[in-house]
Every structure is written in C-alpha cells, then in structure tokens.
Amino acid sequence: MDNDNTFHVGITMAGAVSAGAFSAGFMDYLLEVMGLWEAHKEKIKYKIHAGEALSEFEKKIPLHNVCIDAIGGASAGGMVGVLAALSTFVNSKPVKEPSDSRTGNILYDSWVLLDDDSNDDTFIKMLRTDDFDNNKDGIPSLLNSTPIDQIAERVFRDFAQGRTKWQRPSYISEDLRVLVSLCSLRGVPFELNFETFITSHFPHSPGHRMKEHMIVAHFKLKYDKEQDCDQ
Predict the structure, then answer these.
(1) Looking at the structure, do residues 10 and 116 belong to the same domain, yes or no?
(2) How far is residue 208's CA from residue 194's CA, in Å, rounded to a whole number?
(3) Based on the number of CB atoms within 10 Å of its own CB, is 178 exposed (0-12), middle (13-18) or buried (19 or more)?
(4) Within a domain: 16
(5) How large is the angle between the packed helices 20-50 and 76-87, nearest 10 degrees?
C-alpha cells in the first residue's frame, strides 16, 4: 500500500486441467465485483463532493483503491490469466445463469462452452482423426487438438470485435504484466559448444545438446522497448 491509498495486487493461478473452469469463474466474479465497487465509489465521491448525505449502506463501502499489477499462472491457470486480462478490455458482461449458447463473455465461453456447436460437442471432435490430414510430421497428439485452436481463434476474434467499446478499468494497472509458464513437449533445442584451439581442427566440435521444455511467456501493457528490454 503506497501513499495514494492504493493496494497493489498480484494474482497467480495453478495448473488445473479442466478445473481451470473454476479459476475462470473466480476471475469473472472478481472482475464483476471490482467493477461494481468502482461504480459505487464514484457515486459516493460525487455525493461527498456535492455535500449530499450518504446512506447507511454507502457509509460501509471502503473508498481505498485496488490495482492489479500482475496476473500469472501455469497451464490452465495461465490460460485463465490471459483470458482475464483480455476480458478487461471488452464490454464482457458477467454470466449469472448457465447458458448453452454463446454469451460474449470470453471466460465463460472458452471454459464452459469450449468448441461446442450444433454439430458436435468438443469431446466428440477430439476423437476425430482429421488432424492427420496434410500432417507430414506424423501423429501430432493423442487427441485431436484442433478444437483448442478454434477456441483460441474465437477468443481473439471476439476480442477484436469488442475492443473499441471498453476502456481499461481503473483497477487494472496501465503497466499490467501477464506471465504464463508453458510446457513444450517437443522442446526448444540448445547447444553449448565446447570448441577449443585443439577441437577447432576436428570435423565436428564437441558440445552439450539439450532441449528446454519449460518456457515463460511475459506480456506487458504499455511496453517500452528501451525500459523493458531486460525483462
């Protein structure tokens, strides 16, 4: 808490496989509550400035600020973190009742409705073999992962359509950071070359080769190429 009466908050979420739907529900509710709180605080501040009396309910509402500076997560938690960050920049209304049709809330639609459509549900699609078509690298995965790509594409398509309708909420830092840990099964290859004066004459220099499977993706709002070059 700094001198301007603001609590700075970081949120981290664990990997959870399908339980990411619960994390998504929590984030959706948190953003809903933060939005309602901000709206009530604005009304109270206006009343105080105008010299109007506050109701008993309004007197109990705290007026300090909360700023979310960072959101991080692993696996499902990371996916929820990215979706939550995106959802604060569109007019995404909270889902209060179960729905079998698209709601426009990217957290709900991505985790509850998945890639379901009028033809098949997502889990039926994951048993198809059409992902073998035109794939020269062999079997890409045990289950058909095409529905996951469709979910991601829909998120960014919906985000692009609603982006101009909503501005960054005051409880989201203008320097918000989103950190996501990823696991690459194929890995990113690295090589440590042990070339010396002697080995430089060898046909092939000795080295230690390995693959890095753990990757951290770091996103930042208001990115500055010079100031953030070391992060």
Answers:
(1) no
(2) 8
(3) buried
(4) yes
(5) 30
Number of Cβ atoms within 10 Å of the Cβ of 46: 10
| 71 C-beta neighbours (distance < 10 Å), count | 27
- Give the whole-angstrom CA distance, residue 151 versus residue 129: 18
Shared domain for 70 and 174, answered yes or no, is yes
Q: Which of 2-16, 32-46, 54-68 has the least mean pLDDT?
A: 2-16
Structure tokens at 139: 């079997």
The whole-model pTM stands at 0.81
- Both 116 and 77 in one domain: the answer is no
Query: 9 with 84, same domain?
Result: yes
What pLDDT is stored for residue 231 in this prediction?
56
Give me the pLDDT at residue 1, please.
42
- Give the domain extent around 85: 1-89+170-184+213-222
DSSP letter for each residue of 85-97:
HHHTTTT-PPP-S
Does the residue 202 lie in any domain? no
Residue 5 in domain: yes
Residue 188 belongs to what H/E stretch?
strand 172-193
Asked, for residue 134, whether it belongs to a domain, the answer is yes
The average pLDDT across 88-116 equals 90
Number of domains in the chain: 2
Nearest to 42 by CA among 65, 20, 21: 65
111 in the same domain as 67? no
Averaged pLDDT score across all residues of the chain: 87
Whether residues 67 and 179 fall in one domain: yes
Give the end-to-end CA distance of the chain in Å, rounded to a whole number.
Answer: 24
The DSSP H or E segment spanning 180 is strand 172-193
**Rounded-to-integer distance, Cα 185 and Cα 55, Å:** 58
